[in-house]
Structure formats: structure tokens, C-alpha cells
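WARN  no MSA supplied for this record, continuing single-sequence
INFO  ligand: S-adenosylmethionine
INFO  echoing inputs
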Amino acid sequence: MNDRTKDYVFISYSHANDIDPITSAFDKQGYNVVFDNAMSYGEEWDLNARRYISSERCKGVLIVVSEKSLTSKPVLTEIEYTARFRKKFFCIMTNNLTLMELYSSIADKLDENKRYVLDSIMEYLSDQQLFVRASGFDWTRIKETFAQWGFSGDAPQGNEDFVVGKYTSEIKGEKERLFRQQKGYYNFDMQAINGVFDELGRDDLCILDLGCSNGALTISRFASDSRIKKVIGVDYNERDIEEAKAAAEGYGDRFAFYRLDLEDKNVISELNSIFAENGIEKIDLVFAALVLHHLKNPKLLLLKLYDIFSDDGKIIIRGSDDGGKLCYPETELLNEIIERSGKLITNSDRSNGRKLYSQLYGTGYVGIRMLYSVTDTCEKDRKRKENLFDVGFKFRLNRIDDLIKLNPDNEFLKSERAWMEKALTTLKEAFCERDFWYCNTSYIAVAGVK
Ligand SMILES: C[S@@+](CC[C@H](N)C(=O)[O-])C[C@H]1O[C@@H](n2cnc3c(N)ncnc32)[C@H](O)[C@@H]1O
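INFO  complex generated
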């Protein structure tokens, strides 16, 4: 939840750790955890950490223990604040080692400074502390511990754990929805792309499209501009890549498509081999439409990508954000649909649009600017209103169906599906009323590397 206006526990972790699975596990149990995704580095971070930990609302601190966090100065500072403000704390181990095993496995490899940080942190961590593992939380013990801290959860009844698969465009209706979206955002994308090409002011441009799906969007955006030399599209969906290769056949050697998982730890070396195979030295434009929000750690990819750009290279990221959807009447219904589907659709970040600027800023990109595209239902005919509804809402039911396929016995998912189906029918009817207004904002961030 990350809400500082209610009681919370603060999560201390190293930025090299992926804490999404941990925060969402606490979220599902109804515990409000606060972490520093709203803080930036430097002095501001230190003050915020102090403020967040010292607050009356902060009932305790969870320390995510990993090789990285045990040698992190910011984590040490947070632990020092935890002690100074006499907050209770416990640790979450991200691997299967005990604390001492982890200590022994890293201590000898560290330089003097890191060793000093490690030893200082170890002075605070004792064997009495409740240690839990990220791979399997002991909720009975955690609940007892939180109860002793005077920290209570507010888990909705029946909100059981369920398995979530990776995003795939093979969900029923998803290809069709992507196609409609691609058409709808053509002008918006071209505004950003042409702006960047004009700024670059040169030919022989090499482009990388991340999460290119079946290549339809890649080809529609990059087929005709004579300034382009080569376009590489990558996606982790094998079938999509096969389709993309077939679709690109009529375009000579302008396009090349490859299967690649952007979360693969060797993503940059994989990309470099692809570039070498295609005679590309550096990339002039990285384009990423509606893909970064599927990654657990989009900032990590943004950091890694830094190495592949030409000196004046640019990045264009198109995102979306459920917070950019407004309507009247039926405001409450729309908000509830968004809130409830947000708890189920956890394989994508439905609030990604608002984060683009900060993600780029936080990873060192420069000259960042944001573009906005607003669509609404005003004076639209029924078909176009339904199209807006389908693109923004209908897919939510298909995604729940997909979850039910993975969790066929989960009663909670079935009851959420029943609620969602009814709610979407009501909202769709409302969309077609004459006095109904709906408006959606989409976001593009453009940035450079130098
Ligand atoms: C919502 S679709 C967007 C497709 C296309 N860019 C568009 O705007 O129409 C997201 C795409 O990202 C791909 N994707 C998601 N996670 C990925 C990952 N870790 N590595 C590579 N591709 C990924 C999916 O397979 C899918 O094709």
C-alpha cells in the first residue's frame, strides 16, 4: 500500500534488490508497508528515511537482508535510525543462507569500507530477531509479532494467495486489443519519434524496439522513414517473434526480430550479440511501448541499457496509468473496478505512467520531457465509445480468466470474476449513455543519455 497516513512498517532494502514480491506478499495480507520508491537519492533520501522511521505511524521496520543490503551504507543509516528511534524490527532473508552463513560468504571478499559497513550492520542484527525467508513467509509468526508491535493488518476476507503467470499477449482478445491500441496511438508515437529524429538530425539511424510483440507496431512506426537504417525488435514471446519475422519479410533487411527476455541477467550481452550480427555499433533510439510496466524492476533495465546508446542516443517510453482514467457518473464504480483488478493483475504495474519521469531521472537519463495524449467519449458514436471501453476495461475480465486457468480451485478469484463481470457490464452500459463522460490520459517520456 505504501501509505504514510496510516500505521505502517517501513521496509529497508538495497536498491539492487527486487522487493516487489515482498511488498506484494504483505499487501495481500492487508499490511501497509512503506518503502522508499518515492524518495530520491542524496540528502533528500536521508531526511525522508529519518522522517519515515521516526514517525509515530511507523510501528516497526523490516530489513531485507541480502549480500547487497548488508554492505549498503543507506541500509546501515536506516538501521541506525531504527535503533535511535527504538523501533522494533525483523529481517527477511532473500536467500536460503542463515545470517552467519551469509556473513561468512561475503566478508572476505569486501574492501575495507564495505567490510566496515557489513560489520556495523551485523552489530545490530541478533539471532533473537525474527528471521523469515522471502521464499516462504511464516504468517502465523509474523502476525503474532506484528500484534505485539500494535500493528494490525486489514486483509480482505478470502484474499488467498494465487499463482500469477507472466504477461502474454496470447490471452483471449489481447491481440485485438493491442491492435486497436496501436492504431489509436499512431499519431502520438509519431509525434515523439519524429521529434527525436529531427533532433538527431542525421541518417542511418539504428533503432531498438523493446517488447515488440508480433512486430505490427514496430513495422507501422518504422517502415517508411528514409533516415532509418536498421530496426531490431525483441520480445520474450517466441510465437510473437515468429509472426514478426514473417510480417517483416516484405521490407528487405530493414527489420530483424529476436526472442529475448528483458529480465534476463545477460540482457546487454545478448543485445550486443544481436547488434554485432546486424552490423550495428550503437543504438540511436530505444523505443518501448507498454512494456516496462511488465518488468519487476524497470529501473534496472534502464540502467543497463545505458551502455548500448550512441552519444546522442534517445529513449522513448510509452506507458499507461489507471490513475489517468476519469469518468462521471459512475466514478465510484470505475474506481472500484480499477482497485479490485489492480489486486489481481499483479504481473503489470497499472500505475506506470506517473513513474516514468522519476524512473528515468533516477537512472541518470537527461533532458527528460513528457508528452500526453488525452482521449475522451465526447460526441463519439457508440462504436467509438465501446472501443474506448474495450481498450481500457474489457481485458480485465480476460486477465482474471487467465488467472483462473492457473488457479482453477481458487474461490476468491471466482467471486472476483463474478463481481467484475457484472461491474463491467454496468460500466459498458454507462459508456453509451448520452450524458456519460470518460477521459483517459496516456504518457510518453522522451529522454537522452548525455
Ligand atoms: C502490452 S504488450 C505491448 C506490445 C507492443 N509494444 C505494443 O505497444 O503494441 C507488451 C509486450 O511486452 C512483452 N514483454 C513483457 N515482458 C517482457 C520481458 N520480460 N521481456 C521481453 N518482452 C516482454 C510481451 O510479450 C508483449 O509482447
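The longest strand covers residues 437-448.
INFO  checksum written, moving to next record
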